[in-house]
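Thread: 10571_t:CDS:1, structure

OP (GT): Posting the sequence first so everyone is looking at the same thing. Length is 276 residues per the record. Can we get the structure tokens written out before standup tomorrow? I want them in the notebook alongside the other entries.
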Amino acid sequence: MLIKEYRVVNNCTCDEYQVAQLYAVAEASKAETGGGEGVEVIKNEPYSDENGKGQYTYKIYHLSSKVPAVIRVLAPSGALELYEEAWNAYPHCKTVLTNGYMKENFKLITETLHVDDSRGEIENALGSSPEVLAQREVVLIDIANDKIEPKDYKEEDDPQLYTSQRTGRGPLKEDWIKTVTPVMTCYKLVTVEFRWFGLQNKIEAFIHNVMQSLFTKFHRQLFCWTDRWYGMTMDDIREYEEKTKKDLDESRAKPPPATTTTTQKAKKAQTETPNK
């Protein structure tokens, strides 16, 4: 088991972030869906239990082309799907990611608390136990200055270059975390458990590297999309999520684009005249 606490500082308020995060999740889902793959939203509904109330979502991530070809050949049915349950009782949220093939041997748990007027300085925002605190590693994510993969870089999603026309926020320069207002922090306690002899440590470290990269890229986009989500209400977001679900279902149902080779063969077959 490998535990890290990611602290992501953002140039917005907690109320604004609630809308911004849901908008950005919907947009990211659309970008990753198509040709039989991507995000399938099974449930998105209010919940209420002994721990409180909020919004419950259940999603399936269809990932076939996202893994190496050798794994696609060897992996059994269900191994290339991830199941995500999320309980959003904002400002506290919990997400559990599992896999049908790995079952109890794989679990990725993310527990998040969103805190206004915080710059990532709270040492135990989530009230973790002494045992967890002894294991966790704290990672402060700077969305403007942390390095990202060249393949992930987009000028329009660069906080160092972006200025919001509607709010005047940005660009985020140098020591922005210490000076920017408004400000809030997402405290994300991520626990990865991958029980597979000989691979556990390597895979758990790999998953955390992926999570850090995802958090960085996601929040860079969230900031640079300020003019898209700013002013939206929660009613607007729920309506947008419902439309997005329909778009995702339609996009996922479409067949993947034919390869160049397949297309060329089809055209050749249409133009060739059979020998007599």
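GT: Both are above now. Quick notes for whoever picks this up: The helical segments are 14-31, 69-74, 130-135, 176-179, 200-224, 226-229, 234-253, 260-271. Residues 259-276 have pLDDT under 50 and may be disordered.
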